[in-house]
Amino acid sequence: MTEVGGRQQQEEALLAPSEDEFHEFEDAGRTQFQIAWRKFKRHRMAMVGMFVLIFLYLVALLAPWITPYDPNSGCPRFGERKETCSPLSAEVLADSNQAPSLKHPMGTDNLGRDWLSRVMFGGRVSLAVGLGVALSAGLIGTAMGSLAGFRGGLTDNLLMRVTDIFLAMPVLLVLLIASKWLSGTTRNIVIILAFVTWMPAARIVRGSFLSIKEKEYIEAARAVGVPGFRTIWRHMLPNALGPIIVQVTLTIAAAILAESTLSFLGFGISPPTATWGNMIAVQRTTMVTQPWLSIFPGLMILISVLSVNFMGDGLRDALDPTSLKVRA
Amino acid sequence: MLYFITRRLLFAIPLLFIISVMIFTFLNLSTDIAQSLRNPRMTAEQFAKVKEAYGLDKTGPARYFSWLGNFVRGDWGTSFIYQAPVAPLIKERLKNTLMLMALPLVLSVLLAIGIGVFSAVRPYSKLDYTFTGFSFLGISVPIFWFGLLLQLFLGFYLKEWLRLSEPVFFTSGMHSPGRPEFELMDFLRHAALPSMALMVQLVAGWGRFERSSMLEVVNADYVRTARAKGLKERKVVFKHSLRNALIPLVTVVAIDIGLLFGGLIVTEQVFAWPGMGTLILSALVAGDYPLVLSAGMVIAFAVAFFNLTADVMYGILDPRIRYD
After folding, report:
1. Which residue among A165, A173, A253 places its CB closest to the CB of B18?
2. Is the reported ipTM for this assembly greater than 0.90?
3. Taking the model in full, what pTM does it have?
4. Helix (H, G, I), strand (E, B), or coil: what is residue B288?
5. How many angstroms from the chain centroid is the CA of residue B260?
6. Which residue, A135, A188, A148, A176, is CA-closest to A265?
């Protein structure tokens, strides 16, 4: 039976309840997750974005096992030459400044390093920063927002003024100065970026909490003496989750872009650790002679950010209970 | 309204204070500006004397408050790396930044409105999907990388392809060396590529925004009424819908202009544009705190000012909004 036929039957069943009424309702009753997933699946670009992202994250995760060459020394990682090869040896340098070929799909740089391997390892850092920042910013924002929205009054006022201050900051300038101070490591970059990206989540959560707080089930929870934290955790947060998920997803995109920008300007993660941003910065001088060395890492940034943005768009449509229209 | 503006302006003062403290603290923790004044042949006593002459022998807080005291009195201090007063330096660079911003801003607003209207009039059409695709590309592309591509394709390859001795679009700087200070064509050939890099993100963001605000409006009751009256479609779209759909865009544009003052750092760096961005960047690298602080204050003020402008404009344009 086709899907359309099945749906039609269901609708008929709903309109004219049969004797087996409870059974029919079980069929029609879907969880929130299932409803969202059905909407998300129909957003074609979001699905493409999701699969591309899963692929990119898998490659990043498995990079140490699947890259043919070492990203920093340029030596082969497998085979018998692995033991004898050393960085900057004649053997490695013989392969330097190669154009893309079957052996080196993205070419090699002046130190004979295989650019594909370096792009894969660079993606490890860039994508990890994206996810790390999004999760920490989501956590901070949710904590601030739920406290402000749940408590209200003075707490709300205070926390929202702090949020306002952060929102009114010249972000890039603060980022540059902060990363100049805490420069270098991936962990520090994640902390710095989370520091300037948590505000939208805080505002969104506060907004939802203010309206959820007025609902009867929260009053009921209070009436039976459910403690504050449990009320937030069990009754309020699940109902505010949709917009948070969308925001966290979009923060991944912002964080990947911000990290690459910082690294490009020389304030982010510094070489030899490869990130897509600092790879482009280093190869700026070879832009005319070997454009592929900067084009490939940039293309990877573009593809991953684009995928995240499409996915965020799909999630926004899917998780919004008022949206009925489904985009092709 | 006046009360609202006053309150917001007063709120900006602690904001600027907090930002300046942050800038100074981070900068002071990361770089010792005194080292830049050091000369290998200096003896320890001589170095101590130089430090004293610049007031660098004092503690961090003392230096910060002496900068703050002078700053509010209009004396913005002397830059260490440029060895020149900060205020005229910033004024000159700010002028260059504004020159870079002006044209792309106007063009971006017009393009964004066009995209928004055409997408919203026929949503989910081929044209709409094309625009949406380009918008997603625009908001997802790293600006510095896009700038490099522009330099490569429209700067270098175009020149090679046309077999010219001089590129059509210059890839760096504001005017060619040896030319008179300002010449319109020369300036435009230098400004073209950074303007394009700038416009991509602006048009993409604003276009999408205008599309959704148009979509909200075209289903409004008063638009249906306008149609029911038998008005021409053109009048319905441009007079009744667009005018209302422009209100939210005005605020977004205002906020983004403020953010641009700081955000231009990347574009200016890629195209070596002698504006505020490159000034701040060079000062940051050296830890030149009087320059970074003063320039940072200008940028932070611009952000706060344009945020306020956005809110005020919203209040003026939309009679449903009242500030008390």
Report:
1. A165
2. no
3. 0.87
4. coil
5. 2
6. A176
